[in-house]
Specification:
By secondary structure, the chain is an alpha/beta fold. Among the domains are: about 140 residues, Rossmann fold; about 150 residues, NAD(P)-binding Rossmann-like Domain (Rossmann fold), CATH 3.40.50. About 45% of the residues lie in helices and about 15% in strands. The chain contains 14 helices and twelve strands. The strands form two sheets. A seven-stranded mixed beta sheet has the order 9-8-7-6-10-11-12, with helices on both faces. The protein has a five-stranded mixed beta sheet with strand order 1-2-4-3-5. The protein is globular, with a radius of gyration of 21 Å. This is Glutamate dehydrogenase. Keywords: NAD, Nucleotide-binding, Oxidoreductase. It holds the Pfam family ELFV_dehydrog. InterPro entries: Aminoacid_DH-like_N_sf, Glu/Leu/Phe/Val/Trp_DH, Glu/Leu/Phe/Val/Trp_DH_C, Glu/Leu/Phe/Val/Trp_DH_dimer, Glu/Leu/Phe/Val_DH_AS, Glu_DH, NAD(P)-bd_dom_sf, NAD_bind_Glu_DH.
Length: about 425
């Protein structure tokens, strides 16, 4: 048992998984050792101590991280997550995935990520604001529209981004909306940004169904995680005629073979803070990743599909709405089963794509209507899907390896053209 536990710990290590995914693609590309090391390692990792006055009058010191993995193709880009289990290794892995995500969808950003070790559910709004402003102030030398552009992630939202805009702007003595993305519309946000990641999932699923000659209309879909990404993708797929047969979140899960009423479920979750108890379905008694469905959308956290449960996954298409939901060991099992996995760096890149649009609009001072944003997003996502699919068919590799190959080639090409400053 101890050996099994140690092996599972290795399998669940996000940084190790990110490096394994990179190495498999890099091996196939025969990258020179020097170039390989340059693009594999993070450019900069920063740890900050954040003293914050709590509402009860005590002073608490929080730990924050910001990792810039690459700025070769443009400013570092990546969200900030607030979670009690955030680690530097996790943030390093997420920053690397952002480099590849931006490259695979071909937008001019590098990869970055941030995190603060805290439990937002136990903090007041005032405490969260003070923590956010302290984090933004301590990292203001890193942040900037041309250097490092954060965004929301787990347990952060538009309000947190608005606080960062204000804090950064006070330090710069001018209003600078382009310092973060995922902002409220009133503070320089973009139409369509809130729904962008979920819409990107839909677009990838639609293209996958077309490639596999399987209709999306009537397909049975299970969604793990019913936050922004899960709820939007479920709603959009239901509008395309798919049946959302199961949904779960941290509170529990519900299912109905005939299809859940997604609109009613969204309303229920808004009122009850979870899917548990939803009267329009029966309680889910088995893990949702093992549910009988055609399409599985893991849209929660990392490491949901491992070597321990991958053989029980029944979905033909797995659309990774979350970052790192499938371990490399599970990937091999799914590949042998014939599952078509749309990897996270492609499938959930709709959010960063519209973040790029938001950044562009901020820089221009000219804002597009939602219809135009969605049209541009579709162009980018469909092109990226087919770039990856073509690489997959050419090299006879799965979509994840192909996505990493596409991304790595694009980063390497820029490095070779720019050279190394020394």
């Amino acid at each position: 048992m101890p050996a099994e536990g140690a092996n599972l710990q290795k399998e669940l290590n996000p940084l190790r998984n990110a490096e394994r995914q990179f190495d498999e693609a890099a091996d196939r590309l025969n990258l020179p050792p020097g170039i390989r090391e340059v693009i594999k390692r993070p450019r900069r990792a920063t740890i900050v101590s954040l003293p914050v006055n709590l509402d009860d009058g005590t002073l608490k010191v929080f730990t924050g991280y910001r990792v810039q993995h690459s700025i070769v193709r443009g400013p570092a880009k990546g969200g900030i997550r607030y979670h009690p289990d955030v680690t530097l290794e996790e943030v390093e892995a997420l920053a690397a995935w952002m480099t590849w995500k931006c490259a695979v969808v071909n937008i001019p950003f590098g990869g970055g990520k941030g995190g603060v070790v805290c439990d937002p559910s136990r903090m007041s709004k005032g405490e969260l604001e003070r923590l956010t402003r302290r984090y933004a102030a301590d990292l203001s030398d890193l942040f900037g529209p041309e250097s490092d552009v954060p965004a929301p992630d787990v347990n952060t939202n538009e309000q947190v981004m608005a606080w960062i805009v204000d804090t950064y702007s006070m330090h710069e003595r001018r209003t600078e909306y382009a310092v973060v993305t995922g902002k409220p519309l009133e503070v320089g946000g973009s139409a369509g940004r809130r729904e962008a990641t979920g819409r990107g999932v839909l677009l990838c699923v639609r293209e996958a169904c077309e490639h596999l000659k399987r209709p999306l209309a009537g397909a049975r879909v299970a969604v793990q995680g019913f936050g922004n990404v899960g709820s939007v993708s479920a709603d959009l797929m239901a509008k395309e005629g798919a049946k959302i047969v199961a949904v779960s979140d941290v509170s529990g899960g519900v299912h109905d073979p005939a299809g859940l009423d997604v609109k009613a479920l969204i309303t229920w979750v808004a009122d009850h803070r979870g899917v548990k108890g939803f009267p329009g379905g029966k309680p889910l008694t088995t893990p949702i990743v093992e549910h009988d469905c055609d399409i599985l959308v893991p849209a929660a956290l990392e490491n949901q599909i491992t070597h321990e449960n991958a053989d029980r996954v029944r979905a033909r298409i797995i659309a990774e709405g979350a970052n790192g939901p499938t371990t490399p060991d599970a990937d091999r099992i799914l590949r042998d089963k014939g599952a078509f996995v749309i990897p996270d760096i492609l499938c959930n890149s709709g959010g960063v794509t519209v973040s790029y649009f938001e950044w562009v609009q901020n820089r221009m001072g000219f804002y597009w209507p939602e219809r135009e944003v969605n049209q541009r997003l579709e162009q980018y996502m469909v092109q990226a899907f087919h770039d990856v699919l073509a690489k997959s068919l050419e090299h006879k590799v799965d979509m994840r390896v192909a996505a990493f190959m596409v991304a790595i080639e694009r980063v390497v090409k820029v490095i070779m053209l720019r050279g190394v400053y020394a």
